[in-house]
Amino acid sequence: MTPRVIVVEDDRGVRENLVSLLAADGRLKVVGSFGTAEDALKKAPALHPDLAVMDINLPGLSGIDCIARLKDTLPHLQVLILTVYEDGDNVFRALKAGASGYLVKRDISERLLSALQEIREGGAPMSCHIARQVVQFFHRSEAAATNSVALSPREREILDLLVKGMILKEAADHLGIGFETVRTHVNHIYQKLHVRSRAEAVVKYLRG
Amino acid sequence: MTPRVIVVEDDRGVRENLVSLLAADGRLKVVGSFGTAEDALKKAPALHPDLAVMDINLPGLSGIDCIARLKDTLPHLQVLILTVYEDGDNVFRALKAGASGYLVKRDISERLLSALQEIREGGAPMSCHIARQVVQFFHRSEAAATNSVALSPREREILDLLVKGMILKEAADHLGIGFETVRTHVNHIYQKLHVRSRAEAVVKYLRG
DNA sequence: CACAGCATCCCCTTTTGGGGGGATGCAGCA
DNA sequence: TGCTGCATCCCCCCAAAAGGGGATGCTGTG
Description:
The structure is a homodimer of 208-residue chains.
Chain A: E1 4-8, H1 12-23, E2 29-34, H2 37-47, E3 51-55, H3 63-73, E4 78-83, H4 88-97, E5 101-104, H5 108-120, H6 128-146, H7 153-163, H8 168-175, H9 179-193, H10 198-207
Parallel strand pairs in A: 1-2, 1-3, 3-4, 4-5
Helix pairs in contact in A: 2-3, 3-4, 6-10, 7-9, 8-9
The structure holds a DNA duplex (30 and 30 nucleotides).
C-alpha cells in the first residue's frame, strides 16, 4: 500500500518545496500539508496518514507538542523531524515525544526520500551529528556515573542512595553512620559537582 | 592525516576479511588486528589507533569491557561496534561504554567503509534497526515518565525548572507567579508521581 | 613531619513537604 | 442553565529536611 504522508511546516515556500519533492516520488502519496500544528491536529486524523514530515519551529504549538498529540489519535503515525536546530534538548524532546527520525534541513534534498523509506522499514534516520548527539547521551549518562568527577567511594555510594530517593536520615541508617556525616559528604559532593541542590546533583548524576 | 585503524575480532576468517576490506581503502591504514580483547588491550596503545572496529562477542573479556578499558588509555579512540547481536541490552551497554557506532555484521560489506568515514566526520553510524532501538529507548523513557501520569502543562513546566536546578522561589520569579503557587503545583506533581521529594521527582522525570 | 584526602560529627539558617483553606476561570455534561 | 471537574493562582502554620560553614581524627605520602 502506498504510504500516506502529511507535511507540517510553517514556511510556505519550504512547505511547497517539500510537497513537490515528495509528490515526485511515486512510492508515496501526499495527502495533506499544514502551516501550523493546530491545523494539523484538527485535520490530519481524517486523512489517515502513515508518515508525517514535521518542522519543529512552528508558530503557536511547537512541532514537539504536535507529535505528542498526533500520536494520541494516530498511534501508528511515524514522524520525521525536520529542523534547523541541532541542539540536544530539542533532539531528545522530539524523540521522547515519539519522533522516529530527525533530519536537519541542510540535508533535506539528498536524504528526505531515503529517510522516509528507512522509517517504513523500521529504521531511524538521523543526520549524522544528530545521531552522534543521541549516542553521546549514552556516553554522558555513563561518564557521570563513573568517571567524570573524582568523587570518593563513600561520596559515590551516598550519591547513589540519594538518586534512589533516600533522604539523608535514611541514607545514614542504611550506611550505619551519623546523619551529620552523610550531610557533610553530600556537601562535598555538591562542591565537587558544582551544584547547590540535590535536584541538580541528581540531574548531573543521571545525565552529566 | 591517514586514520589508523585496529580490528578486534575473534573469528580469524572474518578478521582477515575485515582487514583486507579496510586495507583496500587507501584513505585509512590498518595498524593492527587482534583475536581477543586482552591482546588488544596489551598491544593497541603502542599503535596509537584513531579508530577501532570491534566485535562484541569475544572469548574472555567482552568487546564492551574492551571498549571501556581502551578508552582509559586512548580517550580519543573512536569505536565502531560490529556484531551479530541486535538486542537492546548490548546496544545500550556498548554505547555507554563509549562506542561511536553500531553495525550488524549483515551489512558490513556495504557500509563498513562509509561508517568509518562517518565516524571521522562526527557522525554515529548505525544499522537501521539499531538506530530505531536507540530511538525507542527515548520513547520508553517518555512513556514511563509521562504516559503513566498526566501532569498539566504548568506542572510539567515547573518540574522542568526544578530539573534545571531552580529552587521554588527562583521558579516563581521566573514564571512571574507567587512562591506559594509554585509550592502548590509542586505538591500536586508529587502526588501524581507518587514521590515525596524533589530528588525522586527528578529521577522519575529523567528516566521514568 | 607537614600536608592532602577522606570519613566522621556538631551548630545555625533557609528551604521543603504536608497539612489545611479559598478564589478564579474554563470546558464538558446533565 | 447550573453543576462538576480541573487547572491555575494565592495564603497560613509547622515540623522536618536540606544547605553552609566549621571542626576533629585517621590515613597515607612526599
